[in-house]
Design goal:
By secondary structure, this protein is α/β, with parallel strands linked by helices. It is built from eleven helices and twelve strands. The chain has a six-stranded mixed β-sheet with strand order 2-1-3-11-4-12, sandwiched between helices. Strands 5, 6, 7, 8, 9 and 10 form a six-stranded mixed β-sheet that branches. Strand 1, helix 2 and strand 2 form a beta-alpha-beta unit. Helix 2 crosses helix 10.
Length: 301
Amino acid sequence: MLKKTLLAAVALAALAGSAVAQDLKEFRVGILGGENETDRLRNYACFADHLKKEFGFEKVSLFPAADYDGVIQGLLGGTLDFAELGAAGYAKIYLKDAKAVTPILTKQEVDGATGYYSIGLARKDSGIKSIADAKGKTLGYADPDSTSGYLVPLTQIPKTTGVPNDKYFAKTQFNGGHENNLLAAYDGKVDIAVDDSSGLGDFKDGYTSGTFHKVVAKGTVDPNKLVEVWRSPLIPNGPFVVQNSLGDQWKAKLTSFLLDLPKKDEKCFSAIAGGNYKGFVKVEPGFYDAIIDVRKQSIGG
């Protein structure tokens, strides 16, 4: 009798949780730092409109965090329902609480790849043409939780130079996100900035996607004044994740909605994706195992 009572209680609790998810009235979307807040909110406005129309949410709240950790902590604390993360950001969440969120999708590049690059950019008039020319110079990082703006250059540049970055460069510094980091190099405040990029297409367009592409498209920088001086191995594109407390039904609904978005509204898809992409593809947590291992070994949780 006790066993049946316990089973019934568990079933009721599960139904109650399901009811909460089904009756979701507000949907909370985290937006990573790295680009100025006005542009991020403008890019996601169409996404909020689509979510309201598709699911009948009374409110879709957009939270443009000042840095990557703001979104990470929101997901860990349960105050955000959904966000796009970099691979290193997801690794940080996974190492703190593997059951907090589930990756459902990632972006597919125009060539079909599901990866991108960290690139090093310098001013053309600096005379720096490669990492070999940058010894004793200043290296700018984007954010401590960025994959392409910190973790990958931290671990991969030394494979070229043979020494840790803090020994090879005269100085390394964080510049408050990808856009600010790139502008720091463009304005001569650092000698090299590491940035996220598809590495596809024309350099004069800032390639097809990534922060370099965004600032070129906005007219903020002239690509003719910059040169690429380093490129990483291919990095897994970051995941779009869903808070696990929403349940499997909402994960399935959101996955289907996002997979259809590029066909329904290509302009909106490009706005939230940050450039020219082929679309979304489903992704499993194991896709990020290598980045989780690198983060754990290099900078911890």
